[in-house]
Design a protein that fits this description.
Elements lengths: L1 E7 L1 H5 L3 H10 L3 E8 L3 H7 L9 H8 L4 E8 L2 H9 L12 H5 L8 E3 L3 H11 L8
Antiparallel strand pairs: 1-3, 1-4, 2-3
The chain binds adenosine-3',5'-cyclic-monophosphate.
Adenosine-3',5'-cyclic-monophosphate binds next to loops.
Length: 138
């Protein structure tokens, strides 16, 4: 059993596809063990994406992520990190495989609908960033 953090980004909330995204995870046997809707602050977004702070797209990314509410969730299942990333597709929707969330729903590398942790260490940091132990219901 493994846990991963996923976010339906502001573009996903605006496009009314929260249920579409979560449904794809659930259909593949992943379980939602924590969930909340929130509007990220600038500091909150900068802290979450601190690993990207030197990247040229950092300012734009944090502005985008604070542009509207998001839905943050923890998903649990065997090999959850890799499976969620497979369902999401490539970061750039133009490069994403057919049938993936980003191929089907996303507009650009920035407005790419969904986030998923990329490794066990990242998942641990990201889950702890948004949820405390009492909010995890696995
Ligand atoms: P995410 O999985 O949330 O992790 C970092 C995000 O930065 C990524 O998805 C993209 O939405 C965003 N981003 C914006 N521009 C770029 C870029 N040029 N390369 C990679 N990621 C980018």
């Amino acid at each position: 059993m493994q846990r991963t953090l996923s976010i339906v980004k502001p573009d996903g909330v605006k496009k009314n596809v929260i249920g579409n995204v979560i449904g794809r995870f659930e259909s593949e046997g992943l379980r939602v063990v924590a969930l909340k809707m929130m509007h990220l602050t600038q500091k909150g977004a900068e802290g979450f994406y601190a690993v990207h702070s030197e990247r040229p797209f950092f300012a734009s990314l944090t502005e985008f992520m604070t542009g509207g509410p998001v839905v943050v969730m923890v998903l649990e299942g065997d090999n959850a990190i890799k499976r969620v990333r497979g369902l999401m597709g490539a970061t750039n929707p133009a490069e994403a495989d057919e049938g993936t969330i980003r191929k089907d729903l996303a507009d650009s590398i920035e407005a790419n609908i969904v986030h998923g942790s990329d490794a066990p260490e990242t998942a641990e940091f990201e889950i702890g960033y948004y949820f405390n132990a009492m909010e995890l219901h696995g």
